[in-house]
Write a structure and sequence with these properties.
The protein has seven helices and no strands. It starts with 11 loop residues before the first helix and ends with a helix. The longest helix is centred in the middle third of the chain and has 41 residues. With about 180 residues, the chain is mostly helical. The chain has two domains: about 80 residues; about 50 residues. The radius of gyration is 30 Å and the shape is flat. Keywords: Membrane, Transmembrane, Transmembrane helix. It is found in: Membrane. Pfam families: Tim17. InterPro entries: Tim23-like.
């Protein structure tokens, strides 16, 4: 119970909040200072400045599927609008557009997701074999991915696909270097 004689004399005694860290002699700012850099279980993981093969596999496959599905859905939308006929009701037109978008989106998403899966696997394998991390790994992985993706169409298609894959990856790596150098972020 509060002594009624002391209420008017010193209001600070009764309005202060309880501080559980008062007796710890630790500055409050350092108590919750969390690290901002990633934490690694093994020291050799912290030395490498790249994603692991599993993270690469997930990243390239997921990004490939998502971008392919969005691009394919857009293409399917345009195809669905073009396929509509004069006598179609609104419900029939919407159904045609949704069916075309879903079909094209799944098809393109699966195709580009598989390309991302092959690229990530080949790039991780090349990094493990060469034991270096440079631009050549990515270009070789692009060559291999294009050749593997088109291998079922014959050797000529595989060679053309490999060349296109290598050129696309080379252009992407060069573009990334240009953006890093000239775009202030």
């Amino acid at each position: 119970m509060v002594d009624s004689r002391n209420i008017g004399q010193n209001d600070d005694d009764y309005t202060k909040l309880y501080n559980p860290y008062k007796d710890l002699q630790i500055p409050m700012q350092t108590l919750y200072k969390l690290p901002t850099s990633p934490e690694y279980l093994f020291q050799e993981e912290s030395i490498a400045q790249r994603r692991s093969w599993g993270e690469n596999l997930t990243y390239y496959t997921g990004c490939g599927y998502l971008s392919g599905a969005v691009f394919g859905a857009g293409k399917g939308f345009i195809d669905g609008v073009r396929a509509s006929e004069q006598g179609d009701t609104l419900k029939l037109r919407i159904n045609r557009i949704l069916n075309a978008s879903g079909h094209s989106g799944r098809k393109m998403g699966n195709r580009i997701g598989v390309i991302g899966l092959m690229f990530a696997g080949l790039e991780s394998g090349i990094v493990a074999v060469r034991d270096t991390d440079d631009v050549i790994n990515s270009v070789l992985a692009g060559l291999g991915t294009g050749a593997l993706f088109k291998a079922a169409s014959g050797p000529r298609s595989a060679a053309v696909g490999g060349a296109i894959g290598g050129l696309v990856v080379g252009a992407a790596v060069a573009g990334k270097q240009v953006v890093k150098r000239y775009v202030p972020i």
